[in-house]
Write a structure and sequence with these properties.
Length: 229
């Protein structure tokens, strides 16, 4: 939210509070009451989306990075053990299936790391009985699968969080425009109906509708609209 938008929001809420403090007056005009309720709902939508837009997403990426590092190390340890077994039994095909350095795994792209780890796990699973003396057992592979699943679920989260943040920002911008339009085309027009019955209300309404310009050191800017004179 920009400083200009913050100033607008402050104006919206000032008008909302002013009207709510004068319900006896505004309740004489059902159309005005309806517009006030609509603006209140739009302000709530705006604040909800601004809250989402301000949500920090760095932690999501950090969690993914931590899970990736754990998975790479786990995969490397298992691959190295299987390689050692393959070397002992002179199984060159099995050697090639698990021939990975830690750097190889760390450089593997996100979407390819899980399939690579699945291949390492299958190679170990296919030779599980023989690998028992090497320290690889069924629980070892279960724990490895858990790490694979955790990372697989984490891969799209940073992008999803960024997308949600972008969507919330767009909704905030759109909601500001909607509220401005409601003020200019409906509430400001209807405010004139109180000119005779509640002139002081109209005067104070117009004052509340001024936007405090954030760049003028506290000066105010009249709304660029057909607010009743």
């Amino acid at each position: 939210m920009t400083k200009r938008e913050e100033a607008k929001l402050s104006m919206y809420r000032t008008v909302q509070q002013f009207c709510n403090n004068n319900l006896t007056i505004i309740n004489t005009n059902a159309a005005f009451v309806a517009v006030l309720a609509l603006i209140g709902a739009k302000i709530a939508t705006l604040l909800t989306n601004e809250t989402a837009a301000r949500k920090k997403t760095k932690g999501v990426a950090q969690d993914k990075g931590s899970q990736r590092a754990t998975l790479c190390l786990n995969a490397f340890d298992i691959a190295a053990t299987v390689f050692a077994y393959a070397s002992e039994v002179n199984n060159l095909t099995l050697q090639q299936l698990v021939k990975f350095t830690l750097t190889d795994l760390e450089k593997t792209k996100d979407e390819l790391l899980v399939p690579t780890c699945n291949n390492i796990k299958k190679a170990a699973s296919d030779n599980l009985a023989a690998l028992a003396t090497y320290g690889i057992t069924a629980p070892t592979l279960t724990a490895f699968q858990n790490n694979i699943d955790l990372y697989s679920g984490a891969v799209p989260k940073p992008r999803s969080a960024k997308t949600a943040k972008t969507t919330s920002n767009k909704t905030v911008k759109a909601t500001f425009k909607e509220i401005d339009t409601i003020f200019k085309t409906r509430m400001d027009k209807l405010a004139g109906s109180f000119r005779t019955t509640a002139p002081n209300f109209l005067t104070e309404y117009k004052e509340a509708r001024k936007i405090v310009d954030p760049s003028s050191g506290g000066g105010s800017e009249k709304p660029k609209t057909d607010t009743p004179k």
